[in-house]
Amino acid sequence: MWKPKSKILALLLLFFYLTSGLFAKENDPIFQALNDEMIRSLNELKMQNLEKPYFISCGIQERQSVEIEASFGAILNSDSDHYRELAIDLRIGDYKFDNSNYGMDFMNIMVGGGGPFDMDYSSTKKVTLDNDYDILRHQIWYEMDGAYKQALEDYAGKKAALSGAPQEEDAPGDLSQEQPQEYYEPPLEWTIDKMVWENNLKEVSAVFNNYPFIKESYVHFNAVNNRNYILNTEGTRVVFNDLSFTVSISAMMQDEDGFQRGDNYSVYGFEQGDLPSLAELKAEAEKLARGLQRLSDADTIKYYVGPVLFEKDASISLFSNLLAKKLIAFDLPVVEASQSMFMKPLMEQMGMGDNIGKKIAAGFISIYDDPTIVEYKGIKLAGHYKYDLEGVIAQRVVLCENGILKQVLNHRKPTKKQPTSNGHALLGSPGGNVKPSISNLFIKAEETISSEGLIEQFKQKCLENGLEYGLIIRNFYTPSSEKELMKSVFSSIMSIGGGGKLNIPMDPLYIYKIDLETGNETLLKNLQIDNLDDNSLKDIILASEEEYLLNRGSTTLGSSIGVAIVAPEMIVIDDLELSWKQPSSEEKPYLPNPSFEK
Asked: Does residue 177 sit in helix, strand or coil?
């Protein structure tokens, strides 16, 4: 039972908490400048005989970051950055039809830095780091004026593009109406000792100096402290922080036949203390290098058809690459007729919204995304957040039940099947450049078996197919550079015209041949899966009761919120085809590495 003094103390603490938050907000020049200029613009910004805004969202993201990169014991890059970026989403018309969702930037879609969702927003602009109300008001006023003029231009262009075209009576509209939110966090203080991390990265990256076959290697440290201000004219006033720390290690080798293989290791944390020690990071670098070294002496096969077991990282990769990136709502933007014919086939593969009610996975698989979950089995989840980057509260979303797609992740762009947001506008900066994304994704199997039992049933399934061995994949090849990745993605995009599908390339890295009689495993190399696509998840026949978690950081500059995926530790897909892969066309260096010349 509470004592009277305890009650009084609790009430005083609650009063202090509430009033301190209000005091901080009322004395925050960024908040006040955004709020005051946004309201003035809504009420007074109007050119003669033209429409005035019906909705404005303003966001400022203050970003502090430290980024260090090392290779072979030397620092390649060591930067600290601190800036504030303003984004304005100003709309004319109404919720049903406005200036947004018009136009397309094809190159941005290719590199993952933009997309159809970005067309709803104006570009971000740098603003002062000084907490000077008047200067901030001036900069916001100037950018607001430009956003209004651009909105008028886009509104006219969109109406012209649709003129003469039949209009859908049940069109979903351009902006959903959401419940206003109010939330305010005080700023976070942080300190990063760059010299310590530079020395750490030098030591970790120097590990690869002992392996002459390593052609490229990088060790990367990234710390991000984002403070997000999101205000709109509906009444949302949300200010929150997100802090993250990431260390990644990558290496690539090329063998005598020209085959390139890359692998990486990455760890994500909310605090510096979440990251591994120097000794642990060096051990991971050694493990990565030795793994690639073993591939040089691995066997190979020409062809295989039958069940394939995917374990740990490979299991996560399947769901991440074949499914997670497409569990988003998508509605084709309005484009000029000359663009439509080329863009439509590509854009129709950007999301799964049209597949609601259809089977997307095996009947015993269910999937949900829940950013409200903080921990899984005592481990902090990288995808946790309270509000998305449109100021909508985080929500659990049941995506798939018994293999049937029920809904997808959505932001404030309505679709026919999902008219409102479910709080998953994540990628990009607040108020602009946002689109739906996964956060904490859970893939659950209703029918499971122990790992030991699964392996036995897998072997039995292979015997039923008349095989002498089965294949186990434990990891996939990681492209060594963005250039290499984009080359593969571009090839995939170009295949769409011939009836192909848009998929990120997935070639096995660590693949093992398991003898069905003895259980002995033999490492294989240079294989590719010929028939792996979205439909493959419907062919999952076995799943382990043990689960596997992968935390990873976001690769998007506007957000430090990461992604967590929990899936069965092992799954088996029936009837896959694998074949020997052609070597890379890139020739080996003519001269050997000088560090290893005798």
From this structure: coil
